[in-house]
């Protein structure tokens, strides 16, 4: 009886958990995105002032509940010396959000290079990365690498222009 009830409870209330990496160059807006997501989706969360966000050394972890899903975000530091740590998290994550500051044209090439990691890293990814929301051509215009080099075959991907400040 206990097993039955606990199974029913889990079915009704337990959320599916997914780990999402937030990557991108330093100053791209990763932590701002995480703070805004927590503020927007977590009812009782009192967001910190965006002006108080400083560069991330290590990682920030944030949880956001969306419907029956619990998203555990890992926001990693984007400074060059920290980028070598990114691939240590791929095997554990279900998806990646790669943040690019599209107004920082001088660093678009650098951003593309930082994400254009060897296919080996990406083959460790599993789970859908999200619905396709734009074409490869549009992505390419903004400096994103061609899909084949950064998204494993059969995985979903999307390209979503947004602002994390004017929301
Ligand atoms: N205009 C504008 N500014 C933004 C946006 N997102 C972030 N910023 C600003 O960009 C700066 C850097 O934001 P962070 O969130 O600290 O960047 P980060 O990617 O976490 O940087 P690291 O922790 O160093 O890797 C801050 O001054 C933010 O206010 C945005 O959507 N629009
Ligand atoms: Mg940060």
Automatic annotation (TrEMBL):
InterPro entries: P-loop_NTPase, Small_GTPase_ARF, Small_GTPase_ARF/SAR. GO terms for biological process: Golgi to plasma membrane protein transport; intracellular protein transport; protein localization to Golgi apparatus. GO terms for molecular function: GTP binding; GTPase activity; metal ion binding. Mg(2+) binds at residues 31, 56. This is ARF related protein 1. It comes from Cercocebus atys (Sooty mangabey). Keywords: GTP-binding, Magnesium, Metal-binding, Nucleotide-binding. GO terms for cellular component: Golgi apparatus. GTP binds at residues 24-31, 78. PANTHER family: ADP-RIBOSYLATION FACTOR-RELATED PROTEIN 1. Pfam families: Arf.
């Amino acid at each position: 009886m206990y097993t039955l009830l606990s199974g029913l409870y889990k079915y009704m209330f337990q959320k599916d958990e997914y780990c999402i990496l937030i990557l991108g160059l330093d100053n791209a807006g990763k932590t701002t995105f995480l703070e805004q997501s927590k503020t927007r989706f977590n009812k009782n969360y009192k967001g910190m002032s965006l002006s108080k966000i400083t560069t991330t050394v290590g990682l920030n972890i944030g949880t956001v509940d969306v419907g029956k899903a619990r998203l555990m975000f890992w926001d990693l530091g984007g400074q060059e010396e920290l980028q070598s740590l990114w691939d240590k998290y791929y095997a554990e994550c279900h998806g990646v959000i790669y943040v690019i500051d599209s107004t920082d044209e001088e660093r678009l090439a650098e951003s593309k290079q930082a994400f254009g990691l060897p296919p080996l890293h990406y083959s460790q990814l599993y789970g859908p990365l999200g619905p396709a929301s734009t074409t490869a051509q549009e992505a390419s215009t903004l400096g994103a690498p061609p899909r084949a080099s950064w998204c494993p075959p059969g995985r979903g991907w999307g390209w979503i222009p947004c602002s994390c400040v004017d929301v």
